[in-house]
Design goal:
By secondary structure, the chain is an alpha/beta fold. It is built from 26 helices and 32 strands. The strands form nine sheets. Strands 8, 9, 10, 11, 12, 13 and 14 form a seven-stranded mixed sheet that branches. A four-stranded parallel sheet has the order 2-1-22-23, covered by helices on one side. A hairpin with a 6-residue loop joins strand 11 and strand 12.
């Protein structure tokens, strides 16, 4: 087909192909597709409005992989949905009176338009959103099965309470200074009945399975630390002159002879009972102050320790040596970890050391530091000292075993495994979330709503109060109901579920969102799961990813999913964030750059190419004043590709002449490009793949503008291969150019991924750098398969090297053929 279009008009090209992909359902896939299955999923977004650059970056990576794997012959599942419950919609309702559903639906349409505008392709038939009544129905069914299995339970727990608003606040609503974002009142902790999921039941399994996951090591380390498994001992400390005792947990029972004080969490139930009258006022003031602090503030290591503790006046008896040691309170000890009490050994723990110095408490070392030790607390290995019958034990491990054996023999302690991980608090005192499907009956207590009556939906005719209180508490039609067991009066639960519940199983529902008699299609999940490639931000490393791993196991154990499905995501990629002015680009900071301005000027392909070219995709980058110049550069590069592929480049000389060596070099270069780009795609090195495209296009321009010109068949093969390789990155321009060159019919995205000929990829010669004492002194052309002995001989024979050596003895030669030889004299 003759090509006549010389002008690259991205808006027209992109509108045409986006409409065609939508009309043809190009990336829709059925569950009985015969191709090998491959599931690509980007974390489904919260619909806060039109896409921002973070969306473009994340979804470009996902879209590239979908198109690439499809060209490789896979049947790719690429679904999309929306994490549509959340505080922003409820806050908008409070401000404007607009129902959260109306607000959310409008934001979803804006985001959909933005995703389509960047050329991202999905099986839109599978779209789900968490405020859909059908999805809520299955959320509630799963909750009830958790309740029946003992994985859901209710107990008292501390929450953030605003006295001005008279309501519970989510952590996000508490400002860093501890005040309410709405009223400015100081937020305090209150104990309220809350719903929990027993995630700790799977702590060991989730911890052990991390080793086998193909996830970034950074994420796995964060999860290991969050689960926080530790082995140690738990034992009793009696309180002097009382009948009370405290249980402490320690991972270092071998250091017990160095215990010089004990620290309790301010919330510990024994505080009121052991505090002496002369210290009561000081202790009460301290406890009240700490109740206003967040756990993050309490765990900080930067605050002055002299203000973070208080003496109770009580003493505990160290069972190892009978010594009475003072009992303090400190804000950094949390009631939610271990027993809420610690034995303090300042000689072997730096925080205990700092506390001891601040409060003038004794320090006793129990492990011998190395002779050259100049630090404070010593946490390394060594022989036991100052420890009576343990003294002289050669190492920490042996001493720990001996100490635990002694505790068990005395009947005052035992071996214990502890976890930092706590059960998942899922209650939210909000309106815009999935209601918890239980009622409270005065006779039968907690009663699940019958499954036939699900979903429980929040009413629309609610009043959103300026205080932010959930309107469900004041809606008689919702609140008042009857008990499903006795028919007597009952009240509905007015709490809603944490929105992380929705994102903990949505990927399973995507496998078959049409199934109406179960939340999950067992066979479809067996076909598609686990997700082959999951893509999202590092900020989800702990909560979302940990909850999803818990849910997958629990659902499998309850029979909703195949028993063998234990992990939801086979591979995980965490993209870097975009910063502007040193802070993360986000709507709350008001520093978003809308992609629409680029769609309307240089086009979506240019913006996609920029995000792929700007740097390694797992690293952060800064959006600066120069960014637009780089995006313009990407646009100019695509315009060069357009002119080359459309045959409208200047000084283009193409004919059917006899083959020349230059043609063979272009053919080899094409196969090397295939090999390199495939390799870069597999390891997510998209920026270097773009660089390879730019280098290759430069080579082709030199080829077509040389005196001998280009051979038509060779150029056609090179350009067609280039378009196929670039298609996943810049789908619109490559689709248009392919149609211009080959006519209507199969598009470039229907073509198989190119495969390199190994014989043509092979490089005959390489440039070997020769150094003397690390400085480059020569460059030699050598055979690509040159051996180490020959490479060294060629280097030593080099006149430039001999001049530098100047008769001095060669001490060593470091050879890395065919790239480098370094002669050390």
């Amino acid at each position: 087909m003759a090509v006549t279009s010389s002008m690259y008009e991205p808006q027209a090209v992109e509108a045409k192909w986006q409409a065609r992909w939508a009309e043809q359902g190009s990336y829709e896939i059925d569950n009985d597709d015969p191709r090998p299955p491959y599931y690509v999923l980007c974390m489904y977004p919260y619909p806060s409005g039109a896409a921002h650059q973070g969306h473009v970056r994340n979804y470009t990576f996902g879209d590239l992989l979908v198109r690439y794997r499809t060209m490789q012959g896979y049947g790719v599942l690429s679904p999309i949905g929306f994490d549509s419950f959340g505080l922003p919609a409820e806050n908008a309702a409070i401000r404007t009176g607009t129902h959260p559903r109306v607000f959310t639906d409008a934001r979803m349409e804006e985001l959909k338009a933005s995703l389509r505008g960047m050329g991202a392709v999905y099986d839109w038939r599978r779209e789900i959103h968490s405020h859909d009544p059908e999805f809520m129905r299955w959320n509630q069914v799963i909750f009830q099965r958790f309740l029946k299995a003992g994985l859901a339970y209710r107990k008292k727990a501390p929450v953030n309470w605003c006295p001005g608003c008279q309501t519970v606040l989510a952590n996000e609503q508490v400002l860093p200074d501890g005040t309410c974002e709405r009223s400015g009142d100081v937020v305090v902790k209150r104990d309220l009945e809350q719903w929990f999921f027993r995630i700790t039941a799977y702590a060991d399994e989730m911890l052990e399975a991390l080793d086998d996951l193909d996830w970034p090591e950074r994420v796995k380390t964060m999860q290991r630390n969050w689960i926080g498994r530790s082995e140690g001992a738990e034992f009793e400390l009696t309180i002097a002159t009382t009948t009370h005792s405290i249980r402490v947990y320690t991972t270092r029972p071998d250091t017990s002879f160095g215990m010089t004080f004990v620290v309790l969490a301010p919330e510990h139930p024994l505080v009121a009972q052991i505090t002496t009258p002369d210290h009561q006022a000081e202790v009460d003031a301290f406890v009240e102050r700490v109740r206003g602090e967040t756990d993050i503030e309490r765990q900080s290591t930067t605050t002055d320790l002299e203000k973070r503790g208080v003496f109770t006046g009580a003493y505990a008896i160290n069972p190892f040596n009978g010594a009475a040691v003072p009992v303090y309170l400190a804000d950094y000890v949390l009631m939610t970890y271990g027993t809420g009490a610690i034995m303090a050994v300042p000689g072997q723990d730096q925080r205990d050391w700092d506390f001891a110095v601040a409060y003038d408490l004794p320090i006793i070392r129990t492990v011998q530091p190395p002779p050259d030790w100049t630090g404070e607390a010593y946490t390394g290995d060594g022989s036991t000292i100052n420890s009576a019958w343990l003294t002289g034990t050669p190492d920490v491990r042996t001493a720990k075993v001996a100490a635990i054996d002694w505790l068990e023999a005395q009947g005052i302690g035992e071996r214990k495994v502890n976890y930092r991980l706590r059960d998942w608090l899922v209650s939210r005192q909000r309106f815009w979330g999935c209601p918890i499907p239980v009622v409270y009956c005065p006779v039968h207590n907690i009663v699940p709503v019958p499954e036939s009556d699900l979903p429980v939906l929040a009413p629309d005719d609610v009043e959103f109060r300026p205080t932010g209180e959930s309107p469900l508490r004041y809606h008689p039609g919702f609140l008042n109901t009857t008990c499903p067991i006795c028919g007597g009066p009952a009240e509905r639960e007015t709490d809603t579920m944490d929105t992380f519940v929705d994102s903990s199983w949505y990927f399973l529902r995507f496998c078959d969102p049409w199934i109406s008699d179960a939340p999950i299609n067992y066979d479809a999940v067996e076909h598609w799961m686990p997700v082959d490639q999951y893509i999202g931000g590092i900020e989800h490393a702990i909560l979302h990813l940990l909850y999803a791993r818990f849910y997958t196991r629990a659902l499998a154990d309850l029979g909703f999913a195949p028993k063998g499905l234990r992990e939801p995501f086979k591979r995980l990629f965490t993209q870097g964030m975009i910063r502007m002015g040193g802070s993360k680009m986000s709507k709350s900071k008001g520093n978003l750059i809308a992609p629409s301005k680029y769609y309307d000027t240089v086009g979506a392909d240019s913006l996609r190419l920029f995000h792929l070219f700007v740097g390694p995709p797992n690293e952060d980058f800064d959006w600066s004043e120069q960014t637009d110049d780089v995006i313009d550069g990407c646009h100019r590069f695509l315009a060069r590709v357009w002119r080359l592929a459309s045959g409208t480049a200047n000084r283009l000389k193409v004919g059917d002449r006899a083959p020349l060596p230059s043609d063979y070099e272009v053919e080899k270069g094409t196969h090397r490009l295939v090999d390199r780009v495939t390799h870069e795609f597999e390891r997510w090195s998209y920026n270097t793949a773009v660089a390879a495209f730019m280098e290759f296009v430069n080579e082709l321009y030199r080829y077509v503008q040389a005196d001998d010109g280009a051979r038509a068949d060779t150029l056609a093969f090179a350009v067609d291969t280039l378009l196929r390789l670039m298609a996943p990155m810049v789908p619109h321009i490559t689709a248009e150019l392919w149609e211009l060159r080959h006519g209507e019919g199969e598009t470039v995205h229907d073509q198989p991924w190119p495969v390199a000929d190994p014989d043509l990829v092979k490089v005959d010669t390489e440039t070997m750098v020769v150094q003397v004492n690390g400085k480059v002194r020569d460059r030699l052309t050598v055979a690509a398969d040159v051996g180490e002995d020959d490479a060294v001989a060629l280097a030593l024979q080099s006149p430039k090297v001999q001049e530098q050596v100047a008769g001095r003895p060669v001490r060593r030669v470091i050879a890395r053929p065919p790239k480098l030889v370094n002669v050390v004299v």
